[in-house]
Amino acid sequence: xxxxxxxxxxxxxxxxxxYIEPGFLKLKDKLFKPSQQTLDKRVASYTNSYLFGFxxxxxxxxxxxxxxxxxxxxxxxxxxxxRKIGTEPVLxxxxxxxxxELVEVLLIAGADINAxxxxxxxxxxxxxxxxxxxxxxxxxxxxAQATTTPxxxxxxxxxxxxxxxxxxxxxxxxxxxxxxxxxxxxxPAQRFC
Length: 193
Hints:
There is one protein chain. The chain folds into 2 domains: about 1-65, no CATH class; about 70-175, Serine Threonine Protein Phosphatase 5, Tetratricopeptide repeat, CATH 1.25.40. Helix content is about 55%, strand content about 5%. The chain has helices at about 5-30, 35-50, 55-65, 90-95, 100-110, 125-130, 135-140, 160-175, 190; strands at about 75-80, 85-90. The protein has a two-stranded antiparallel ribbon with strand order 1-2. A hairpin with a 5-residue loop joins strand 1 and strand 2. The protein is elongated and about 85 Å long. It starts with 5 loop residues before the first helix and ends with a helix.
């Protein structure tokens, strides 16, 4: 019996999302003209696919934007238990996940760089809270203006904070004095020598 590994399953899924799906959608669009709502849904749903590593999704997003999808489309924001906790523009989602290529595509398509989510925060705020300095520099260079201060508390620790916490715990673990190892007990052959 053949058992597929996780790598082969992901490889097949990436191949499917990179080649088959975009081609299928182009063929479907030739037969039926997609509505504005359909195009907007594609941008929102394929943003998630792109962020999870399926690079063919960027082709679908670019194609939908060329056909008239809104680059400012809102997507649902979910908590860890898959409950809806608000909405946010796809630009904020891409910025929070540090997807520079997708952010540039959305900005070229005319995304509002200061668009706000349901909490009133924009993409620059999200990158400040997440500690993404490179993405924050890109957004501010393009004209984004943060609405909060950089010291605003984050819901999630940044990678730098997590690394510092790990380093501190390792230092504490190493700082605890260790008791000397007990002397080995003589084995049966050593007693009679």
